[in-house]
């Protein structure tokens, strides 16, 4: 009889972690008696992998692990008679290193509101066996969490983020060959603005026209920058952006029309909040009130009475032309020759009008007649004693006023 040997065959060789490993116990040469019933059992490091004997010459490990590495052999027997042990085979399970580590965040985009849940998902596209996952925060690598599991994905959760959680994050994975790192992912946590408070800062308790009032709007909470807008009766007065805390101000020089309701609005891109309404009552002095009233009356007169006034002036202009035409057509008789009442007058002379002036007073017509006395100047020899030619200007102008009614006018004869 030839001696029969047992051979232990491992498939695949070397085994890959996470894959199926099959152990086969093979007799060499095969037993001569075909009806012989062989029983098999497999061992690792001196311990049976299966307590019972089995007629199958194979043993399978569905997902072999790195820890499954060791010394293996098999044993065969016929009925109760032990046949032989196989040679020992040293099996080393091979592990595939992790690769292509990446970090994903949920919700995607990296922008969260305060109080939302943040999920950091660390992924690897390759690697076998148990993988240790790490999560870090910031460039200094502040450790957040560590988790070990035989999978290609693991998660880390922050139930409710705060504004202070805004930072850069990354993860790492290691299955025995050294950690592999992901890229940095930025996360921004923003705080919605709270309802702003509008305050009025005035120089005195009583507001009057001309005072300078400061409107101050401030939201107690909210991520910067914040855009503030000011309203008067829901009409926008102006806006200003604040990149630091403390709110913003809007200066207003008061007029009589600035009384009413004021409010402000704060918006940081997440939500907009409107403040409560603040009423502003402005006291108007009597002088200012009269000015406003006078201005209103003038505007009213200009708007309503201007056409009527222009019409009346035009009519008066036409009437005046008619009046002046009538006066020019009126003939004024020359005065009757009379003896001279003046000193040194030698003979009666006819006075000739040089020009005339016409005035209308209280509806009565008054004619002012102006005459120039034409008189021969006697020579020096003929001049009477005591009389000098220079005593009277021969070109002197004398006027006489003719009154229509002396009771209506207070004019005297003018010389």
Number of strands: 28
Strand content: 35-45%
In the CATH scheme, the class of the domain at 99-190 would be Mainly Beta
The averaged pLDDT comes out at 76
* Principal-axis shape: rod-shaped
Element order, helices and strands? EEEEEEEEEEEEEEEEEEEEEEEEEHHEEE
Low-confidence stretches: 287-298, 330-363, 366-415
CATH homologous superfamily label of the domain at 99-190: Immunoglobulins
Give me the Rg, rounded. Answer: 62 Å
Largest sheet: 6 strands, mixed
Total helical segments: 2
> Could you please say which CATH topology of the domain at 99-190 applies here?
Immunoglobulin-like
Helix content: 10-25%
Head-to-tail CA distance between termini:
186 Å
Query: From the 3D coordinates, which CATH architecture of the domain at 99-190 would you assign?
Result: Sandwich
Which structural category fits the helices and strands? Answer: mainly beta
Can you characterise this structure?
With 415 residues, the chain is mainly beta. Among the domains are: 5-91, Immunoglobulins (Immunoglobulin-like, Sandwich); 99-190, Sandwich (Immunoglobulin-like); 196-280, Immunoglobulin-like, CATH 2.60.40. The chain is 10% helix and 40% strand. The chain contains two helices and 28 strands. The protein has helices at 286-304, 306-329; strands at residues 5-11, 21-28, 38-44, 47-48, 58-61, 70-78, 81-85, 89-91, 102-106, 111-113, 118-123, 131-137, 142-149, 153-158, 167-174, 180-181, 185-190, 197-201, 212-218, 226-232, 235-242, 248-253, 260-267, 272-274, 278-280, 352-361, 364-372, 397-402. The strands form seven sheets. Strands 10, 12, 13, 15, 16 and 17 form a six-stranded mixed beta sheet that branches. Strands 3, 4, 6, 7 and 8 form a five-stranded antiparallel beta sheet that branches. Strands 20, 21, 23, 24 and 25 form a five-stranded antiparallel beta sheet that branches. Mean pLDDT is 76; it is low at 287-298, 330-363 and 366-415.
């Amino acid at each position: 009889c030839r001696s029969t040997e047992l051979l232990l065959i491992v498939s695949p060789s070397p085994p890959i972690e996470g894959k199926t490993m099959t152990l086969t116990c093979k007799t060499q040469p095969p037993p001569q008696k075909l009806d012989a019933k062989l029983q098999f059992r497999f061992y690792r490091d001196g311990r049976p992998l299966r307590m019972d004997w089995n007629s199958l010459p194979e043993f399978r490990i569905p997902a072999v692990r790195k820890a499954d590495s060791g010394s293996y052999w098999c044993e065969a027997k016929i009925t109760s008679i032990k046949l032989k042990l196989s040679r020992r085979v040293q099996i080393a399970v091979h592990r595939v290193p992790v690769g292509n580590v990446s970090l994903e965040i949920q919700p995607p985009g990296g922008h969260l509101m305060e109080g939302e849940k943040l999920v950091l998902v660390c992924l690897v596209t390759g690697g076998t066996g148990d993988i240790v996952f790490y999560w870090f925060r910031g460039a200094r690598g502040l450790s957040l969490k560590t988790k070990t599991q035989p999978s290609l994905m693991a998660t880390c959760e922050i139930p409710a983020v705060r504004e202070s959680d805004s930072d850069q994050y990354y993860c790492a994975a290691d299955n025995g060959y050294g950690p592999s790192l992901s890229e940095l992912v930025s996360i921004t946590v923003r705080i919605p603005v709270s309802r702003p408070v509008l305050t009025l800062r005035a120089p005195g308790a009583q507001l009057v026209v001309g005072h300078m009032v400061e409107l101050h709007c401030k939201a107690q909470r909210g991520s910067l920058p914040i855009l503030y807008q000011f309203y008067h009766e829901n009409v926008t007065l102006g806006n200003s952006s604040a990149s630091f805390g403390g709110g913003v101000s809007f200066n207003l020089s008061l007029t009589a029309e600035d009384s009413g309701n004021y409010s402000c609005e704060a918006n940081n891109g997440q939500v907009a909040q409107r403040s409560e309404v603040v009423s502003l009552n402005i006291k108007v002095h009597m002088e200012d009130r009269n000015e406003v009233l006078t201005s209103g009356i003038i505007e009213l007169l200009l708007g309503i009475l201007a056409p009527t006034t222009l019409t009346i002036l035009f009519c008066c202009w036409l009437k005046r032309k008619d009046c002046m035409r009538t006066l020019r057509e009126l003939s004024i008789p020359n005065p009757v020759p009379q003896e001279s009442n003046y000193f040194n007058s030698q003979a009666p002379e006819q006075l000739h009008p040089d020009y005339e002036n016409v005035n209308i007073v209280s509806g009565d017509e008054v004619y002012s007649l102006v005459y120039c006395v034409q008189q021969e100047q006697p020579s020096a020899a003929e001049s009477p004693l005591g009389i000098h030619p220079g005593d009277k200007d021969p070109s002197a102008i004398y006027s006489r006023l003719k009154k229509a009614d002396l009771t209506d006018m207070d004019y005297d004869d003018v010389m």
